[in-house]
Amino acid sequence: MLKINNLYAHYGNIEALHGVSLEVGNKDIVALIGSNGAGKTTLLRAISSLVTRNGEICYNGENIEKQSPRYIAKAGLLHVPEGRHVFPGLTVQQNLEVGSVSWRGIKNASVAEDLERVFSLFPRLEERRKQYAWSLSGGEQQMLAIGRAIMGRPKLLMLDEPSMGLAPKVIDELFVKILEINSMGVPILLVEQNALLAMEVSQKVYILEGGRIVLQGDSKDIINDARVKEAYLGKL
Ligand code: ATP
Predict the structure, then answer these.
(1) Model's pTM, two decimal places?
(2) Any idea where the ABC transporter domain is (predicted)?
(3) Could you tell me which CATH number the domain at 2-76+154-233 has?
């Protein structure tokens, strides 16, 4: 459903992606791993039209390469950025309402129903619904950022480093939820520093280095690749 072919991305004169090709199928969790500065965030930003890009980005057969960030989000490709970016001065519920699907022009959208769906996925957010987002823990803020995207009824969810800065136990809890979201029928493109975790939860993995895909395949195979073990898993 999402098919990227020969994608380039630029920051001014700096070329950060040099011809990346990647696919995310309808039911997949696809992991994108690679070291710092490899271009993982840039790839998600390129899909969301937040950075200058050229190449083919086909979503359900339509090339969206020339489309605006708004068009892409309206099509249901929703991006949870690195660092969460919740609105600190709004309550949990207000943050969620900001993500409501209503702006996507979907008829008969019910904010209450969508809130209920998010709260059943993340009961902690319901307990904290009147609390300001600034007062939440890092894990709760990450849940809120993901919950806000769920309010928009994603057709594809792009998660940038959801585990960043979180304790191992919190990361485990969060990834159970990410798997649950996927089992609800939402394909996920997952950028992760934690390569082991990313490969454990995904079906397919792409390894990006220096703005190029250097290895790709089924996660269950790549996780056992000697080069990958040495380069990405030895550090864990
Ligand atoms: P990290 O894990 O550290 O977030 P990453 O794989 O997500 O790394 P990117 O943030 O996409 O990598 O960066 C890819 C390249 O683009 C790097 O060389 C980086 O320095 C460069 N870059 C990123 N953002 C900008 C920017 N706003 N202006 C100029 N260069 C940038």
Answers:
(1) 0.93
(2) 2-235
(3) 3.40.50.300
